[in-house]
Amino acid sequence: MSMIDMDTTPRWVCTKAQLADLCEIWRQQRVVALDTEFMRSRTFYPQPALVQVGDGKHCYLIDNLAIEDLQPLRDLLLQTSVTKIMHSCSEDLETLERLLGVVPEPIFDTQIAAAISGMDASLGYAAVVRSLLNVELPKSETRSDWLQRPLSDAQQKYAALDVAWLPALYGVLCKRLRERDRLEWLREDCAALVTAARNPQPPELYYQKVKGAWRLRGRQLAALQDLCAWREREARALDMPRNHLLKESLCMALAQQVPGHKEALSQLGLEGRVLRQHGDTLLQITSRAIQRQDTPSRLPQPLNRQEGETFKQLRRQLAVIAAREALPSEILIRKKELEALVQSSRPELQGRLRGWRAEIIGRPLLKVLRQLREEEIK
Questions:
Q1: Cα separation of 262 and 282, whole Å?
Q2: Which residues of 361-370 are buried (b: 16+ CB within 10 A; e: fewer)?
Q3: 144 pLDDT band (50/70/90 cuts)?
Q4: Alpha-carbon distance values, 208 to 31, 41, 44, 227 (Å)
Q5: Residue 218 and residue 295 in contact, taking contact as beta carbons nearer than 8 Å
Q6: How far apart are CA 296 and CA 302, in angstroms?
Q7: CB under 8 Å to 24, separation ≥6 — which residues?
Q8: Does the pLDDT of residue 258 top 50, yes or no?
Q9: More confident residue, 191 or 6
Q10: Average pLDDT over residues 63-78
Q11: Assign residue 344 a region: left if phi > 0, alpha if psi is -120 to 50, beta otherwise?
């Protein structure tokens, strides 16, 4: 696509008939650009406010607040012959799943594609457009109220630009990835994003994300697990942010202290609506939790001194491999993944290291790790 031919003028779509006609055309294409605008300041779930589609010639703004039946758009997202080009799309996938009940497939995430092609791993859309297309994008509407109607001209222009250059980026990045024989790597990582969006983490595992949870063990950890699982389910049911329902620090305090009455809850900092509406429930949860026999395994602690030295040596090896492959180290392995490898009693290739990363980084790191452990035994 020639950039000269690109029309960035926003085209408003607010009826099902318009949407159906456009989606019929888009379903015949190989690729379409896709983005969403949403609000999330006071809700658990994103509130879908706008869906943007770019077809390489024009930019369309689909008003999901005005169109009751979005089935044509849903069908487009499920059309596997059409690749959906997006940028840093995790929250967009969640928004689309919330709006339409489906996760688009296949996708081409230009942020991941840029990283695999050798660019920085966390570049925003505007930075990638500037670097690869030499186009400067405004960022004036990032904190807009997207649920208001009508949207201002500035909002509409901003929203249109979010998909305007994605088809051009797709062409440039595909070329870079083919030249490096890495297109399949990108497909694998994007497929993993779709899988993750379709399979959100179970409520029973949210305790693992709590800061300092590694300090707890046994029935205290069981209490934290049950409290976090309750909070997750309740936040979803009420469509309320987790910390608006019950702060993470209070989950920890409740798990550690296991209070037996409401006065003790007040002393821990619970007050007002939370105490009135959920005090009895929280007491029941902690009371049952300390009776559990199936307590969760203790979470990994921070690296000790010896593990820290091993981590440093693996990270040095990672830097060597990243430089050799002209890849950002973050795209190869994340810090938490590297720490888990160091702390594993039987380290093996798992998670993301089972795919294309196995030969590039997985097996080389395992080899170094085994050598270091053999030296420790000697």
A1: 9
A2: bbebbbebbe
A3: confident
A4: 38, 24, 19, 12
A5: yes
A6: 18
A7: 72
A8: yes
A9: 191
A10: 98
A11: beta
**Catalytic, out of 97, 162, 189, 234:** 162
Strands 47-54 and 10-13: unpaired
Using CA atoms, how far apart are residues 284 and 278, in angstroms rounded to an integer?
A: 10
Question: Burial code of 19-48, b = ≥16 C-beta within 10 A, e = fewer?
Answer: beebbeebeeeebbbbbbbbeeeeebbbbb
The residue written with tokens 């505007």 in the block is 126
pLDDT of 3 above 60:
no
Q: Which of 63, 97, 141, 158 is catalytic?
A: 158
35 in catalytic set: yes
Q: What is the pTM of this model?
A: 0.93
| Phi, psi (degrees; rounded to nearest 5) at 290 | -75, -5
Catalytic residue of the set 37, 94, 141, 234: 37
Cβ atoms < 10 Å from Cβ of 203: 18
Do 95 and 38 form a contact (C-beta atoms < 8 A)? Answer: yes
Using the predicted structure, report yes or no on whether residue 1 has a pLDDT greater than 60. no
Residue 75 designated active-site: no
Cβ–Cβ < 8 Å for 283, 259? yes
Indicate which residue of 63, 92, 97, 109 is catalytic.
Answer: 92
Q: CA 212 to CA 214: how far, in whole Å?
A: 5
> What is the C-alpha separation between 179 and 193, in angstroms, rounded?
24
Check if 179 is active-site. Answer: no
Per-residue pLDDT, averaged over 114-143, amounts to: 91
Q: Residue 187 in contact with residue 106, Cβ under 8 Å?
A: yes
| Cβ count within 10 A of residue 123 | 20
Residue 151: CB atoms within 10 A of its CB come to 23
Structure tokens at 228: 């976090």
Say if residue 138 is preceded by a cis peptide, omega within 30 of 0. no
> Any idea which residue has 């950039």 for tokens?
3
